[in-house]
Amino acid sequence: MNTAEVIERLQHRKPTILGREHFREFAVLIPLIAVNNETHLLFEVRSKHMRSQPGDVCFPGGRVEQSDKDELHCALRETSEELGIEQTQIRNVIPLDYIVSDFGRIVFPFTGTVENIETINPNSAEVAEVFSVPLRFFLDTKPKAYQVSFKVIPEENFPYHDIQGGRDYNWSTPKMEELFYYYEDRVIWGLTAKIIAHFVALLQD
């Protein structure tokens, strides 16, 4: 293959995330609701029977399925299923920045208003309860931040002889910041807290 063929083959492609086909993709929605004429964020508490993160506070959402047209369709579908509402009750949907995780996950957050909240009937198989927090709380409150360090452990047959330093190679230690919000008796942390912090930063920019 000569240079002209290389250029011809590549010049019209659009860049994406390297290895994206191996990532698991998820979409979530920050539901905005009106409570006594004040904007609140609506949260779910995951059922204790859930295999992943039981009892954690989260936003409605889930994995993007092949049947989903796109990430937005997934966010609307999952919110409708988990809150027991019609998709038509979800309005003014806006995408936020997506998150690419080193753990093989891409998360696409959206926000939007949910109307007729009195009709919310959570799916008990996935949602233990729902609650809301005034948006003002997050605008006025900085999350607490904690660092989590990870240890690099190569597999047993790792070819140390092929790298400089061998077994004494100076691996960089990956770190991740975990955020925590504390509202009354609720603890909101992890990815949910990170999405909230991003959402608040956009509002305050």
From TrEMBL:
For whether the record's keyword set contains Manganese, the answer is yes
Pfam families reported in the protein's UniProt record: NUDIX
The UniProt keywords, alphabetically, are: Hydrolase, Magnesium, Manganese, Metal-binding
Q: A GO molecular-function term, please?
A: 8-oxo-7,8-dihydrodeoxyguanosine triphosphate pyrophosphatase activity
UniProt keyword annotation of Nucleotidyltransferase present:
no
Name any cofactors this protein relies on. Mg(2+); Mn(2+)
What are the EC numbers? 3.6.1.55
Nudix hydrolase domain location, by residue? Answer: 23-154
Question: Which leading EC class covers this enzyme?
Answer: hydrolase
Source taxon at top rank: Bacteria
Q: What is this protein called?
A: CoA pyrophosphatase
The organism of origin for this protein: Virgibacillus dokdonensis
